[in-house]
Write a structure and sequence with these properties.
This protein is an all-alpha fold. It has 11 helices and no strands. It is flat, with a radius of gyration of 60 Å. It comes from Zea mays.
């Protein structure tokens, strides 16, 4: 990159010089073109000063060029040093890579040994996760079932409330119809149209309640907390009581529904009878017009209307009382729903804590059983070893005492021989590299020498040419003005010719300097290579050492073979007695290792459960659920409308009394309407 920048700079400087010379040679060309006219002294002085200025500029450009060439050469030297260092580091890395495979092999064997333990731990974790997910799914199903039951009860109560509201509207429409009949304008169509509208409103309200149910279920699932054992039992009892109360409410609800159906049937019958009355209205109009003229008949008619209004006012008051009672019953139903949600949450959390406790207890029992089996197997192994293996072990120890030194000597000889072989190979490659480097250096030395000689010849030729040009310039300066017009110049070279010759001379000079530096570096490299002749001596010494190591290893191997053969003879003599009991011994050893691993897994499971924060979280959620349940039980005073001094009644009794009052009010209203209907007939 630096070399290219220097070349570009040189080209730009040459272009600038050419441009300057082309634009400043006007006076010179003018004087040469007008050679017939005698040049004046002023023109000669001007030309001389112009030549001096041009020479100064050329010198400045030469200095800049030499400075750039020196910087380039320094950079090239630095690059060469960096390349040599990079080659040395690569060679060092190659030697390190050859020693790494043995270490990686040892590490791989250790990883394979630990792989079985990791697989067992992974299996236990997978089983624990599967059991936890199964328990969570079961709990979620129970929550969904309870939510569905609550929704059905809530919908039934909503239907009851809507029916009561519908009864009130029917009473109001009946009152309007009575007044309309008195005025001669029946409004039966409004009554018939009001019923389907009310039923459509009821269905819309039920659909909105169904849409709100998943929100309630999600809120219930997210607000799960822990609780204690004793309080969960109390909650279960309260839940049973609430179920009984709900069954009573359902019975009352069914009775109310039956009464509503009877009342609707009577209203429909009444609306059908009014269609017949409309036919007779034409006949009665004449009679009423005649009776209107009679003041006694008019007085009786007015008294009947006043009585009807009083009856309807009483019915309206009864229905308002029914509506109040229904609203209080609806609040009680909401309270039951919240109480059931809290109790269901408490039951679920209690079951989860109970499962954790039972799991830990089961693990403790398994550990106790495994320890007893392990102790029995260990006793069998000790007895078997004392009977068969102790004599063999004494023989084995004796052989090992004699065998281990021979093996250690063999291993040491083998290791030293391998090290020496590696050293020998390294020296051999180093020797080959040095010989190749020496050959390349010799070739480059001859090439540089011939290049330097050629450059010296070219510089001598350029020097002679430059001296001749200086003589010509000196002759031009001493030219006589009187004789100049008489002689016509024949040849005029370009103005840039001297400049180009100087530039070529500078290039040759720089190239010669660079070639000399390269030549000196090559000679220095050859000297350094010649200093490494000691490698041959080291190679000869290593060959002798490798041969000695080979003989010592062979002796150690023979000694080990003799010991192995003697030990084999001794062992075969004792193995005949051990063949019958060896299978039993192996079975005992396998059982011991198996039970130890099982005990280890159980202990790890217990430790994992002890470290797990789920139990603490469940306990905290249980306490929160119990607090919420206690708050709900305290809040029932507002539902029963009791003061602080009065004893607090159960919510079920309050709901039962409200529903009984609703039934009484409906019966009274129904009797009033029946009496009124009979009176009208």
């Amino acid at each position: 990159m630096m070399h290219e920048q220097i070349i570009v700079l040189q080209d730009r400087l040459l272009e600038a010089l050419d441009w300057k010379l082309m634009h400043e040679k006007g006076p010179v060309t003018k004087a040469l073109s007008l050679f017939e006219e005698p040049p004046s002294d002023e023109e000669k002085e001007f030309l001389r000063l112009q030549a001096i200025q041009n020479e100064r500029e050329i010198e400045l450009l030469r200095k800049k060029l030499t400075f750039c060439l020196e910087a380039k050469e320094n950079l090239e030297r630095h690059v060469n040093e960096l390349t040599t260092e990079l080659e040395l580091t690569k060679k060092h890395d190659n030697t390190d890579k050859e020693s790494k495979p043995a270490q990686l092999q040892d590490q791989g064997e250790a990883d394979l040994h630990n792989l079985s333990d990791a697989q067992m731990e992974f299996k236990t974790l997978v089983d624990a996760i599967a059991s936890a997910s199964q328990r969570e799914a079961e709990a979620h199903e129970t929550v969904i079932g309870l939510a569905k039951d609550n929704e059905e009860l809530r919908m039934q109560l909503k239907v009851l409330i809507e029916d009561n509201k519908r009864l009130i509207e029917l009473y109001q429409h009946a009152f309007v119809n009575v007044e309309a009949n008195q005025d001669g304008n029946p409004v039966n169509e409004d009554l018939l149209n009001a019923q389907p509208a009310a039923t459509s409103d009821l269905h819309a309200h039920n659909s909105s309640n169904v849409e709100e149910e998943p929100k309630i279920v999600d809120e219930k699932c997210t607000n799960e907390d822990n609780f204690s054992r004793v309080t969960s039992v109390e909650l279960c009892l309260q839940l049973e009581e609430m179920d009984e109360e709900n069954e009573g409410l359902m019975g009352l609800h069914e009775k109310t529904m039956q009464e509503r159906d009877v009342f609707k049937r009577k209203i429909l019958e009444q609306s059908d009878s009014e269609a017949v009355k409309d036919i007779l209205l034409g006949e009665k109009d004449a009679e009423m017009s005649e009776a209107a003229e009679n003041p006694e008949v008019k007085h009786v008619h007015d008294s009947i209307i006043v009585a009807l209004k009083d009856v309807l006012q009483i019915v309206r008051s009864k229905l308002e009382l029914v509506q109040d009672k229904v609203v209080s019953t609806q609040d009680a139903v909401k309270y039951f729903k919240l109480l059931e949600m809290a109790s269901g949450k408490a039951t679920e959390l209690y079951s989860r804590i109970e499962l954790q406790y039972l799991g830990a207890q089961r693990l403790q029992e398994d550990i106790t059983v495994l320890k007893s089996v392990l102790s029995e197997s260990q006793e069998k192994i000790i007895a078997f070893e004392g009977k068969y293996f102790l004599p063999a072990a004494s023989c084995w120890n004796m052989v090992l005492k004699t065998k281990s030194p021979a093996e250690s000597r063999l291993d040491a000889s083998f290791e030293s021989m391998n090290q020496k072989k590696e050293r020998f190979n390294h020296l051999q490659t180093r020797k080959n590299e040095l010989s190749a480097a020496r050959r390349r250096a010799r070739e480059s030395e001859t090439e540089l020498r011939s290049k330097i000689d050629g450059l010296k010849v070219k510089l001598g030729a350029y020097g002679a040419q430059r001296k001749e040009e200086e003589k010509v310039l000196f002759a031009i300066d001493n030219l006589d003005t009187s004789t100049a017009p008489m002689h016509k110049p024949k040849n005029y070279g370009k103005a840039t010719a001297p400049l180009k010759s100087d530039e070529d001379w500078m290039k040759l000079r720089c190239e010669l300097q660079k070639a000399r530096e390269q030549f000196f570096m090559v000679q220095k490299e050859i000297k350094n290579i010649n200093k490494c002749d000691y490698i041959d001596c080291e190679i000869a010494v290593l060959e002798a050492e490798i041969e000695d190591s080979w003989f010592s290893m062979l002796e150690s191997d023979i000694e080990r073979f003799v010991l192995d053969s003697t030990f084999t003879e001794i062992w075969e003599g004792r193995a005949k007695d051990m063949e019958a009991s060896l299978v039993e011994y192996q079975d005992c050893v396998f059982q011991v290792s198996l039970k130890e691993e099982e005990i280890k897994m159980c202990n790890e499971s217990l430790q994992y459960q002890a470290r797990d924060r789920e139990s603490d979280e469940l306990q905290s959620k249980l306490n929160q659920a119990m607090r919420e349940l206690g708050e709900l039980l305290q809040d029932r005073r507002c539902l029963t409308d009791c003061s602080l001094d009065e004893p607090m009644l159960p919510v079920v009794e309050k709901v039962a009394t409200d529903l009984e009052a609703v039934r009484i009010y409906v019966d009274e209203a129904k009797q009033l309407l029946l009496v009124d209907n009979q009176a009208n007939q």
